[in-house]
Amino acid sequence: MPLPQAYAQYKNSKVLTASPAELTLMLYEGAIKFCNIAVDAIHGENIQKAHENIMKAQKIIDYLRQTLDMKYPVAQDFENIYVYLSQRLVEANLHKDSEILEEILTHLRSVRDNWKEVMRKNGVSSTMI
After folding, report:
1. Dihedral through CA 52, CA 55, CA 56, CA 59, nearest 10?
2. Rounded Cα distance, 106 and 126, in Å
């Protein structure tokens, strides 16, 4: 089996066997990755690549919003965060502004780190991610 195919199969297996908490962590990591790629693309003046990766990050944030269970009070806090991040992603994409993306990255890393802490306190391993 060629190496790229083996890696793709491993990644697919990782997603299929992950808990909901681990999947959420993967989504945060993905949004961070795409924002980082967009920042690099803006600095390299690759507008199309920046646009594509900002859109990927935005789709992740939109998905996270859609999956909120609003019967829990904390869901409204996440809703507010996701709405803000989504609005800022639109602004970053409109102006191809790496400073806005850096702000978004700060927020995403904070949410991700808090999520990891919640996982740790609840006995969910994040080391496999």
Report:
1. -160
2. 20
Domain that holds residue 49: 21-121
- Residue 63 lies inside a defined structural domain of this protein: yes
Tokens of 21: 């908490």
Q: Which CATH number characterizes residue 59's domain? A: 1.20.120.340
Closest CA to 35 of 78, 99, 80: 99
Write out pLDDT tens, residues 1-21: 676 766 456 555 566 778 999
- Give residue-wise pLDDT tens across range 96-119: 999 999 999 999 999 999 999 999
Question: Residue 77 falls within a domain, yes or no?
Answer: yes
Q: Is 11 among the domain residues?
A: no
Note whether 119 and 25 are within 8 A (CB): yes
Report the C-alpha gap between 57 and 81 in whole angstroms.
14
